[in-house]
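Batch manifest line 375
LIGAND: iron/sulfur cluster
JOB: complex structure
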Amino acid sequence: MAHCYVHIPFCRERCSYCDFFLVPGTRLMEPFFDALLQETEARLCEFGSEPVASIHFGGGTPSLAGPRRIGRWLALFSDRVEIKGDAEITLEANPEDCRKHVMEEFRTLGINRVSLGVQSFSGRKLERLGRKHTPDEACQVMQEMLGLFGNVSLDLICGVPDEDMDEWHADLEAAISLQPHHISVYMLTVEAGTKLQREIHRGRCAGPDEGFQAEAYLLAVERLTQEGFMHYEVSNFARPGYFSRYNSGSWRREPYIGLGPSAHTLLKDGSGERRKANVASLVRYISAPYDASTGYELLTPEERQTEEVFLSLRLGQGIALQQLQVIHRQRAQWLEGMLEKFMLEGFLEIRRGRVRLTPRGFLFSDHITQTLLPS
Ligand code: SF4
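JOB STATUS: finished
ARTIFACT:
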């Protein structure tokens, strides 16, 4: 099953914590779309004969591109590539850009899932994050989107400087009360070169408190699962039947083709698995969209196994015990000892032949995963 990701690297302004590849302002949107269409044309053959199961417009803020440009791309793509009848077509959007009539146009084009960058319902948190919408706007837009689309997701961020448990609890309850189909919960991290990092270095605010974030994460898991959301990936919760198909596909390492600057691709064919990344430069991308990537690299069996273990352990369904036993067949006793140790610590469980991290285990997923990677 193949998936398609389209990276639209524009935002009105950069949020204080964000280090994604993007450009503030939309001055280059038109030449970017011309380049995107050229890259898409040049790479149509990579999609093969299998219908595409999902298309994800990510960014950046793809909703800034507007229905006319997204429609132009979808017209080209759907004319040349078979898209499954029930394909998930997601648009990431920010509340301040979601005017109802514009979103109706997106829906007419075939967008059937909206992922809204709400982040918080607290004015103080939104200001600290450098977001442009207000809590009222977030609520109103969420309600409108739920009226328009049958599949709506919202993002929340936890651990903003000076956040306390009451504030986080209020965010969770506000999100739950809106009844979205999907919620992503991210812990704030301080990335190099961001405004947030500079503010912390200058002593203007405190960095995220890991102890608080751990407690807040466990509260999120408890409340969201109580409300019927399935915790299907370390940061993602969905009502049954509403897992993100694009993200699930990429976590399960199904083939995906990334278009646009900095987008990644994983292809599988008779010769093995190949990966490539597009250049993270808008200028280079616009000037040579046919030549936007680093070129394909064939993954070695060890690289494939490493990715599989790394990604599977972040999923609610975990990884087959047998797969770990094959990977570590030279040190079966060591594996048994490690799994027992992590189980005794309450970090993982083995059920129906699968090794799965517990909510507490997800807090240490990097360490546990590193330990269980092929040596
Ligand atoms: S809206 Fe999202 S992608 Fe854009 S700057 Fe903010 S966090 Fe980054």
